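Page 47, continued from p. 46.
Same chain as before, 111 aa.
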Amino acid sequence: AGTGFHEVSERHGDFAIVSAAAEINLDAGGKCASAAIGIGGAHPHPVKALKAEAILVGEAPSDALIEAAAEAATDGIEAMDDVHATGAYRMRVARVLAARAISDALAEAGL
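Result:
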């Protein structure tokens, strides 16, 4: 199993404006056996990225697959604007952080 976590905050130690976490297990053949991905800070509550997880499971990891999963990670999120960031910024950052978290999880899992 491998895990990855990334966040963006205004200053070190502040609450995250956006965060992404991933846990991925690979099978003996190197395909994704299971995936858990979460996005925080973009929506009023943390979101489990079910569509992104489904894209990964059963597939051999590739850059294109990671990008597809990262894009799907924000599906269903209604990003909020506040004094710290716009919703559009949160969505862009969430996709980037999801890709990084997935990549880190795959690397730690042995890919």
